[in-house]
Amino acid sequence: MQYKVPQDVQREDRIVGPLTLRQLIICGVGFSLCYAIFTLLAREYEVITYIIPIVLIVLMTLTFAFIKPLDLVFERYILYLIESLILPKKRYWLKGTGDPSRLIYIQTPSKKKKNIQKAIEVDQEKKKKSLEELTKILDQK
Predict the structure, then answer these.
(1) How far is the C-alpha of 11 from the C-alpha of 21, rounded, in Å?
(2) Mapping DSSP to helix (H, G, I), strand (E, B) and coil, where does residue 105 land?
(3) At 140, phi and psi to the nearest 5?
(4) What's the confidence (pLDDT) of residue 12?
(5) What's the rounded Cα separation, in Å, for the pair 119 and 36?
(6) Residues with Cβ within 8 Å of residue 58, at least 6 apart in sequence
(7) Residue 94 contacts residue 84 (beta carbons within 8 Å)
């Protein structure tokens, strides 16, 4: 007996038309929030008073429901962006740990960076001088 094997198992199931369950929930919450703001503020205030928050909520709802930067859902993209802003840019790997999640995050202050840079420069100058001395000795003999 032959069975049909689904090829794209990572794709979300479509519930209503082209919308997935996640998109339906986000749109339902966002638009019901807009309706609640409209019913609360429309009786007593001017149009501009309740249009601004409604437009902002609609834009946020549509962004979170339909925009997928780098093939990620927008919530995950925002969380990765925050993580990259919070964590330091340099990561050091310890040999033998075997666990890639056990990276050490080190933030060196600017004074330490300057001292390290000076030490590297002094070390390079010493190597250059010793290399020059070695070439003089080899050239003489």
Answers:
(1) 12
(2) strand
(3) -75, -30
(4) 81
(5) 65
(6) 30, 31, 34
(7) no
Contact residues for 77 (Cβ-Cβ < 8 A; gap 6+): 69, 70
Write the DSSP assignment of 3-34 as a string of letters.
-PPPS--SSPPEEETTEEHHHHHHHHHHHHHH
| pLDDT of amino acid 134 | 83
Domain residue spans in the chain?
14-110, 111-141
Give the predicted TM-score (pTM) of the model. Answer: 0.57
Q: Residue 128 pLDDT more than 60?
A: yes
For residues 55-71, average pLDDT = 94
For residues 52 and 35, give the distance between their C-alpha atoms in angstroms, rounded to a whole number. 13
- Residue 86 near residue 104 (C-beta atoms within 8 A): no
pLDDT tens figures, 76-112:
999 999 998 988 777 776 666 665 555 555 555 666 6
**Phi–psi pair at 5, nearest 5 degrees:** -95, 125
Q: How far apart are CA 38 and CA 134, in angstroms?
A: 85
Q: Give the separation between CA 138 and CA 19, rounded to whole angstroms.
A: 78
